[in-house]
Backbone:
């Protein structure tokens, strides 16, 4: 993510200090490349590029949304995103216990789908805390460039949700059924998820310090 603003030096300094603890900027090399492109394109060229990017990702979003309508409606709820690059999917309850997306991580990784559970975005001051069960999870659609890929992704998510429902939402119940020779890749994805969750916790702490 990259952007810029026009402001007085005093305001710009305050924003710069805040972003140092609230966001991770792009590398200096990436920022330099983008600056060179903007200078070369001009306003008209940048606007044209942004419209092309918007069209690209809106088409990929639509592929996933249409696949979800066909394959996921009986086990989950969602809304087609109007901004951003992620779907926010909420698993429908199965049994009295309900669904916690954290319990789905291993099973979905075994099926080849990486998610970020909703608890990672919870506020300790809101209705949902980071330790509360949350049936929602986030998945990206940016790499889905064909209808076949969209169908495969939604089929895998639907399979995990259905099998978890059949097993009473027991943690890891589907992972055993879907385990394959790709266990090394699954372990790597688990580590990536764990690192990301740790980063989110650190970010929350930094934001709280900046606000105090």
Residues:
């Amino acid at each position: 993510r990259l952007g810029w603003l026009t402001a007085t030096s005093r305001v710009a300094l305050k924003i710069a200090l805040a972003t140092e603890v609230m966001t991770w900027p792009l590398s200096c090399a990436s920022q330099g490349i983008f600056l060179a492109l903007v200078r070369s394109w001009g306003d008209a060229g940048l606007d044209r590029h942004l419209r092309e990017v918007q069209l690209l990702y809106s088409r990929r979003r639509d592929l996933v949304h249409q696949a979800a309508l066909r394959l996921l409606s009986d086990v989950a709820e969602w809304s087609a995103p109007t901004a951003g690059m992620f779907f926010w999917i909420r698993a429908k309850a199965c049994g009295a216990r309900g669904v916690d997306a954290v319990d789905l991580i291993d099973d979905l990784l075994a099926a080849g789908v990486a998610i970020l559970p909703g608890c990672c975005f919870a506020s300790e001051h809101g209705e949902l805390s980071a330790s509360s069960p949350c049936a929602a999870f986030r998945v990206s659609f940016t790499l889905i460039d064909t209808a076949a890929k969209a169908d495969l992704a939604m089929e895998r998510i639907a399979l995990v949700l259905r099998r978890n429902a059949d097993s009473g939402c027991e943690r890891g119940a589907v992972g055993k059924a879907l385990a394959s020779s790709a266990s090394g890749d699954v372990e790597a994805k688990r580590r990536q998820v764990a690192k990301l969750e740790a980063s989110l916790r650190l970010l929350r702490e930094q934001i709280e310090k900046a606000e105090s």
In short: The chain has one domain: 44-211. The longest strand covers residues 86-91. The chain is about 55% helix and 5% strand.
